[in-house]
Design a protein that fits this description.
Layout lengths: L1 H9 L11 H9 L5 E8 L5 E7 L4 E7 L7 H15 L1 H10 E6 L4 H6 L20 H13 L3 E7 L4 E3 L8 E4 L11 H17 L7 E3 L9 H7 L3 E7 L11 H19 L15 E3 L1 E13 L2 E16 L2 E10 L8 E14 L14 E3 L4 E3 L2 E2 L3
The chain binds zinc ion.
Length: 386
C-alpha cells in the first residue's frame, strides 16, 4: 500500500490535535523552500494574515482550501503533510510541479480557528456568505477563485461524530460529495468528473477503512462556496473528515484525507486518458445521523414515582481552555427508539438504576458524572474501572 507508506514517511509528527491555528501553520510556511510561493492574501476580521501557498506550473489548476470553518482542522493537517512530501520527495514534487498548479489556502478562518468555532469572529458562517461576501475571509476565498480560474476545487471540511454510514454501525470516517450546481441537482460534465474522481478515492479508501466512507447530502445550497464554484463549472469535490473510533484528535482520519489528496492527483492525471465513468460514485452509501459519543442502554430511572427503562447518551462539547481543546461531556436525553442509533462507546446497563449528585434522572446538558447500579461509577461519561 504505497499511499500509507508515503503518509508514515512524511507526516509531520509535531503537528497534532484539533487546535490548529495560524501559530501552527506559520512556522511551516516560513520554512518552505523556493518551489513554494507563500503569500499573504489579506487579513481576517481580527487582522490575522490569511496565507496562500502556490506550488507547481503544470497546466491543470487545482484550488483547495481548508478550515473555512475554524474548528474543522483535520484537512489543514493533511495539507501540511502534503507540504512535507512536496518538500522532501523530489520525484513526487516534480510530478506535481509539472502536472499541476496548486493554489492552497491552508487556513481560511484564523480567528475562528483560534477560538475553535465554526463561524468567523463576527459569528458568520463563511460557507453561507459566497453571494454577499460580507466578511474579509469570504472575499479572499472568492477573489482567488475568480483570479485563478481553477479547473478543480477541493473544499475541505470536518463532519461531526454523529454521522454513520447508511444503516450500518460504522462511523463516517470520511465523506465526500460532488456538490450540486443547481436546485435540480443535475449532472453535467463537470459534476460527473468530480463523481468519477470520488468513486476512485472511495475504491482506494475501502482498502484501509472498509465500510467507513460516506456520501454527504447533495441538497443545493446557493450561498455555499462549493456549490457556487460548481455552478461556475469548476470540478468541485467536498471532503468531510469524520470520526475514526477513539480518534477524537483526528490524527488517524488525517491520514485518510491525505491519501484522498494523493488519489486526486493520480486520478486527474490519468483521467486525461481514460473515459469518464461516474458509476462508482453511486455505490457510496449516504451519511446518516446515527451516532452518539457514548450510549447507555437499558437504564432504570424513577420518574415521578414511576420506574422506567430508558436510553440516554453523552455528547462532547468542544471548548478551548488555555490553548487546548477540551472535550466536555454532557448528558443527552434520547426521545427516539434507538434501534438505528449507535454509540462510539456503548454500555448495556441491564436495567440498573441511575443516580447522580446533579440530578435524579438524566438531564440534557448536565455534566456526565453519575452512577448506574451499585458498582458502576461513570466519570466524564466513562465507566470507572474498579
Ligand atoms: Zn465545514
Amino acid at each position: 500500500m504505497v499511499y500509507e507508506e508515503i503518509f508514515s514517511t512524511y507526516t509531520n509528527k509535531k503537528i497534532k490535535g484539533r487546535h490548529i491555528t495560524n501559530e501552527t501553520v506559520e512556522p511551516i510556511l516560513e520554512h518552505l523552500n523556493s518551489d513554494f510561493k507563500v503569500k499573504i492574501e489579506g487579513k481576517s476580521v481580527l487582522e490575522k494574515p490569511i496565507y496562500s501557498v502556490q506550488f507547481g506550473h503544470g497546466k491543470t489548476k487545482i484550488y483547495m482550501w481548508s478550515q473555512m470553518h475554524g474548528d474543522e482542522s483535520t484537512s489543514t493537517k493533511a495539507i501540511l503533510d502534503l507540504f512535507e512530501v512536496l518538500s522532501k520527495d523530489k520525484v513526487y514534487a516534480t510530478f506535481i510541479q509539472s502536472t499541476y498548479t496548486l493554489y492552497i489556502i491552508p487556513l481560511v478562518n484564523p480567528d475562528g480557528a483560534e477560538v475553535h468555532t465554526r463561524e468567523n469572529i463576527n459569528k458568520v458562517d463563511l460557507n453561507r456568505d459566497v453571494n454577499e461576501c460580507t466578511q474579509p475571509e469570504s472575499k479572499i476565498l472568492k477573489q482567488i477563485f475568480e483570479n485563478f480560474q481553477p479547473e478543480y476545487c477541493l473544499n475541505m471540511h470536518d463532519q461531526r461524530t454523529i454521522y454513520g454510514i447508511g444503516e450500518t454501525n460504522k462511523s463516517a470516517i470520511i465523506s465526500f460529495l460532488a456538490p450540486a450546481y443547481n436546485k435540480n441537482r443535475e449532472i453535467n460534465q463537470y459534476r460527473s468528473k468530480a463523481m468519477h474522481i470520488i468513486g476512485k478515492i472511495n475504491n482506494v479508501l475501502q482498502n484501509y477503512i472498509p465500510g467507513h466512507v460516506g456520501m454527504y447530502n447533495d441538497a443545493y445550497c446557493d450561498n455555499c462556496f462549493g456549490d457556487y464554484f460548481a455552478s461556475k463549472n469548476a470540478v468541485t469535490i467536498l471532503f468531510e473528515a469524520g470520526h475514526y473510533p477513539n480518534d477524537y484528535t483526528r490524527d488517524i482520519t488525517r491520514k485518510y484525507v491525505f491519501i484522498g489528496l494523493l488519489v486526486v492527483f493520480d486520478i486527474i492525471h490519468e483521467n486525461d486518458i481514460v473515459d469518464d465513468n461516474n458509476s462508482e460514485y453511486f455505490i457510496i452509501p449516504d451519511n446518516k445521523v446515527s451516532f452518539f459519543d457514548i450510549l447507555y442502554k437499558n437504564v432504570k430511572i424513577i420518574d415521578n414515582g414511576n420506574e422506567k427503562i430508558i436510553n440516554f447518551a453523552t455528547q462532547y462539547n468542544e471548548v478551548v481552555k488555555n490553548g487546548i481543546i477540551v472535550f466536555e461531556p454532557y448528558m443527552v436525553i434520547i426521545e427516539n427508539d434507538i434501534q438505528n442509533y449507535f454509540g462510539h462507546i456503548e454500555y448495556d446497563l441491564e436495567g440498573e438504576l441511575f443516580y447522580s449528585n446533579y440530578c435524579s434522572i438524566p438531564e440534557n446538558g448536565v455534566k456526565s458524572d453519575f452512577f448506574i447500579g451499585k458498582n458502576n461509577e461513570f466519570i466524564d461519561g466513562i465507566l470507572k474501572t474498579q
